Amino acid sequence: MTDAPPGRPLPAVTAETEFFWTSGADGLLRFQECESCDALIHPPQPVCRYCRGHQFETKAVSGYGTLIGFTVSHRFTVPGLSTPYVVAQVAIEEDPRVRLTTNAVGGDPDRLELGMRMEVVFDHVDDVWLPHFKPAVDQSPESPMPTDEIAPEDMHRHVRPMLTTEKFEDKVAITGIGSSRIGRRLMVPPLSLTLQACEAAIADAGLTFEDIDGLSTYPGGGAYGGFAEGGVTALESALGLNPVWHNGGMETFGPGGSLIAAMLAVAGGLARHVLCFRTLWEATFTESTRRGERPERPGPGATRAAGASAWRSPFGSTSAAHTLAMNAQRHFQRYGTTRETLGWIALNQRANAALNPTAIYRDPMTMDDYLGARTITTPFGLYDCDVPCDGAIAVIVSAKDAARDLAKPPILVEAVGTQILERIEWDQSTLTHEPQVLGPAAHLWSRTDLRPADVDVAELYDGFTFNCLTWLEALGFCGIGEAKDFLEGGKNIARDGLLPLNTHGGQLSHGRTHGMGLIHEAIVQLRGEAGPRQVADARVAAVSSGGLTPGGAILFRSDT
What we know:
Layout (H helix, E strand, L loop, with lengths): L1 E2 L14 H4 L7 E6 L5 E2 L14 E6 L2 E10 L11 E8 L6 E5 L13 E9 L2 E8 L36 E8 L10 H16 L8 E4 L13 H9 L5 E4 L8 H11 L5 E9 H9 L29 H16 L3 H15 L13 H6 L2 E3 L2 E2 L8 E10 H4 L7 E7 L20 H8 L11 E3 L5 H10 L8 H5 L18 H5 L5 H12 L12 E6 L6 E7 L2
Parallel strand pairs: 1-8, 11-12, 11-13, 18-19
Antiparallel strand pairs: 2-3, 2-4, 5-6, 5-8, 6-7, 8-9, 10-16, 10-17, 13-16, 14-15, 17-20, 19-20
Helix pairs in contact: 7-11
């Protein structure tokens, strides 16, 4: 047992979690155990997810587990952790369904291997004992890698069938789109960006502000530090619209969830024209904080991590990059995927961005450039990561019967995919794909007679290259585990290929507009307004949104 360095991120200790965070005082690792079915439950819950039992006890376990993922973090600054440090996931030997995000310690990271047996050691700081893991001296017991509760290729078997043959999607249309300026550190108020995009979308539809009777956004108002401008409240206060319906929140189907909520409101007759918007000003927020122009967000050492982050941030797992890197590593091992596989996605997005004057990164990129870029967290390099930016996107959802009288031909909604089939907690969820992708993708195809081969253009969430790869497999554009062959050489995903992908440059080169930019580009393509990057005869577009949130997918089609 060692004392952790001062300033290290610490978890909030609650009545429910105190047993876990203080367990290491006697050198033992403990979990909540269901008295009815003997399952270990982590994180602690008031009910067993397996048998719905309500009686629990605390069980001390052996302290051994299997190393099921690790990433060497090079670019993230965390108090008390010197880079590079190793974020790891360990499946507990007594119940491999339970996984801990932790740090791998006590050895050379180059000697770590998936499937290695690990044993717990504790770091003591303040009132908590942080469980770390080192390679076990005894490696003789075989430690098989755990499997998903639902195999990725079987996800469609668990989709709930449609309740009625009538679809709400048939009652709505997309009638207007708009974008603000997109750029790095624009240094303008975020609400100004929102207004630019909303005014453009309303003009694009041939509407006025008085026609707008609904507002919908993601994630809404809150202290999101550059990831929102204040939500519906800020926009309504500025414009005085008096909407009959409004919506905003984080717990939805990714950024596209604001559109899906708007579709339901319109189809239900609660609103006729809903203005949906998403604003990012992360680049300006970071720069103005650096300059001391706004109070800094409390650092990890200043406040205790609560909720889901309490199980990750004490170990330096502070970014979606860490979780996705470990999922990517498992995908590499199981299916033979390589860094070059991810590189073809990055190169494709950059080639498309070269034809888009609004894209942030337009300079040519080669595979050598991609592979030679600085490491962020293994196996991800700089060009596996999207581009923080400032910008806003707006989309208008209208009643279908009102859409045909407006300025632009309506774009129709064929189907949405929203069902949650994987565990929500990032480190307890799907092993080889991005969490919250496989379920929504399978659900989408249950609501339409169209198939993946009918899609003319795909705009798939690419916060990281690996996000995009998992959407490709989940949506059936290639088989599970077949992305390596599908992406080889980049021809299949080129603008003139089998599946033109992220035609505006994606978030990897155009900028991190968190899914709404993908929707904007899909509408542009289906209208035939994309200029030199236009895909010929584009009639059906698949769009996905959400990066490690509950994700969602939407299938659009032109009205011709």
